[in-house]
Each structure stands twice: as C-alpha cells, then as structure tokens.
Amino acid sequence: MALAWGAWALSVQAAEAPLPAPGNVAGVPSCVSADWIQFGRDDQSALLDDTDRRTVLAEMHRLYPVIEHDGLPVSRIVLWRRGSGQLLFIAAMDNPRQAGESCFIATVSAARFSMTVPLLRKYLPQEAAPP
User: Fold this and answer.
1) How far apart are CA 65 and CA 17, in angstroms?
2) pLDDT band, very low/low/confident/very high, at 101 (cuts 50, 70, 90)
3) What is the mean pLDDT of the chain?
4) CA gap 9, 87 in Å, rounded
5) Residue from 98, 104, 129, 95 nearest 47 by CA
6) Where on the phi/psi map is residue 92: left (φ > 0), alpha (ψ -120 to 50), or beta?
7) Model pTM?
8) Where are the domains of the chain?
9) pLDDT in tens, 25-64
10) CB 104 within 8 A of CB 11
C-alpha cells in the first residue's frame, strides 16, 4: 500500500487538479537548484519505511559513492514509478530553506538495485511484475 506523503510534510507544488492515486503529490523541489520533480497523473509513488530506506541507502552509497561522500543526510527515500514505466528512487532530506518540508538531493534509476522488485510488491503491488 502506498503511504500518504502528507505525514512527512513533503513540499508540494500545486497541480491543475488533485492527483487521484493515494501517495502521489504534485512535485518536490530540489535542495540545490530551482528545479522540481513533477509527478504525472499516471505516476505511482511510495515513501519507504525506515528499514527499507536504510537498505536502499546502503546500496545507493555503494552504487553512487558521491551521495555518501557529499555527506547529505538522506532522511527519506521514495520509490517512484513514472507513467512511462521507468522506476526511480528519490533521495530526499529536510529542506534547509523551508522548515518542516523536504527537498530532493538525487534521483537514481531503481533498475540497478537488487531489492527493487520486492519493494514494488510491498509498496506498489498493483504495479509489481508477476512472480
């Protein structure tokens, strides 16, 4: 089941109309630029629980050492399935410019991660590949 993002106060940019799928928000700002990740109407997303966040973050650090090297505190990871089918992980942290909100520091392809299929089954079961 996708988790509601409102519980962790992710910064949201207004969309033309509310997105229908639970767990989706209109977008999330970058921590380092004026860019935004825009979520489409057909996109699916879920906030990983703390155990899964730590597991994905450990592999993210192994695959992309610059994320760990920069010392940015990744406090949230989102599994994002774009309407096109592309799977990504969004690494986010507390927004230093906006208390109580989050911003993203990296997006990485989930295709290289060993735990992507089990996470799809757990968080976005309607979107998971058959066993």
Assistant:
1) 38
2) confident
3) 76
4) 23
5) 104
6) beta
7) 0.74
8) 5-127
9) 467 889 888 888 888 888 898 999 999 999 999 999 999 8
10) no
83: tokens are: 């309407």
Three-state secondary structure call for residue 103: strand
* Alpha-carbon distances, residue 75 vs 12, 49, 51, 53, 86 (angstroms): 17, 11, 12, 8, 23
Contact 4, 23 (CB under 8 A): yes
pLDDT at 118 over 90: yes
More confident residue, 69 or 127: 69
Which of these, 63, 71, 75, 66, lies nearest to 116 by C-alpha position? 63
**Do residues 68 and 44 touch, judged by C-beta distance below 8 A?**
no
Cα–Cα dist 52/49, whole Å: 5
Q: How many Cβ atoms from other residues are within 10 Å of residue 96's Cβ? A: 8
Helix runs in the chain, H state only: 50-63, 65-69, 116-123
- The pair phi, psi for residue 128, each rounded to 5°, is -70, 150
State whether residue 29 is helix, strand or coil.
strand
pLDDT of residue 26: 67
